């Protein structure tokens, strides 16, 4: 994709700090990390949404992402990692080439997800929500 920054990184037209590469995926350091060592794993084929990535490539992204996560945990500074993927602008996707974030975490890294826990109005409301999702699910 000509105007895609991550396609340009894969092509070597924009510099990146490579962590791993194979025939399906490329992994490199995020230029503005949540913590040092924050890695992005991307499919070599351009896909805006994770939902269109072929299963073998998507599986490889998850596999390599979690193996990089294990490597990060072996570093002195970290105890854990988050995998994060934003699909769509409302979810915070800025670069429109699908990417899996591997974010190293330490117990005192002073980073907190602004995670909220809303209640459902009722059991019926929860069931209706599940039914609405299932009615839209195409595989
Ligand atoms: P997202 O908000 O999920 O789309 O994340 C995009 C990520 O790409 C951000 O964390 C950026 O810091 C990162 N990023 C953007 N440009 C580059 C680049 N040239 N090299 C490495 N990471 C980049
Ligand atoms: Zn691309």
Characterization of the model:
The structure is a single chain. The chain is of the alpha+beta class and 139 residues long. The chain has one domain (5-111): HIT family, subunit A (2-Layer Sandwich). It has helices spanning 5-10, 55-73, 123-136, and strands at 18-21, 25-29, 39-43, 80-84, 100-105. The protein has a 5-stranded antiparallel beta sheet, with helices on one face. A hairpin with a 3-residue loop joins strand 1 and strand 2 (25-29). The radius of gyration is 17 Å and the shape is globular. The mean pLDDT is 97. The structure holds adenosine monophosphate (AMP) and zinc ion. The site of adenosine monophosphate has 12 residues, from loops.
Brief descriptors of the model:
single chain, 139 residues, alpha+beta, HIT family, subunit A, five-stranded antiparallel beta sheet, 3 helices, binds zinc ion
Instruction: Examine the coordinates and then state which fold CATH places here, giving the name of the CATH topology.
Output: HIT family, subunit A
Radius of gyration: 17 Å
Poorly predicted segments = none
Shape: globular
For the secondary structure, the number of strands is 5
- The CATH architecture assignment turns out to be 2-Layer Sandwich
Helix-strand pattern, N to C? HEEEHEEH
The structure class reads alpha+beta
Q: How many DSSP helices?
A: 3
The CATH superfamily is: HIT-like
> What is the rounded distance between the termini?
26 Å
Mean of pLDDT: 97
What is the number of independent domains? 1
Largest sheet report: 5 strands, antiparallel
Strand order of the largest sheet: 1-2-3-5-4
């Amino acid at each position: 994709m000509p105007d895609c920054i991550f396609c340009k990184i894969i092509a070597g037209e924009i510099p990146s700090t490579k962590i791993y590469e194979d025939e399906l995926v490329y992994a490199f350091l995020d230029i503005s990390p949540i913590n040092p060592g924050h890695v992005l794993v991307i499919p070599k084929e351009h896909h805006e949404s994770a939902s269109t990535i072929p299963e073998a490539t998507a599986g490889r992204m998850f596999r390599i992402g979690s193996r990089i996560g294990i490597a990060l945990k072996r570093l002195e500074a970290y105890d854990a990692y988050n995998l994060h993927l934003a699909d769509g602008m409302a979810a915070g996707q800025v670069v429109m080439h699908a990417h899996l974030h591997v974010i190293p975490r330490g117990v005192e890294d002073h980073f907190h997800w602004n995670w909220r826990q809303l209640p459902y109005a009722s059991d019926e409301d929860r069931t209706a929500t599940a039914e609405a999702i299932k009615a839209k699910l195409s595989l």
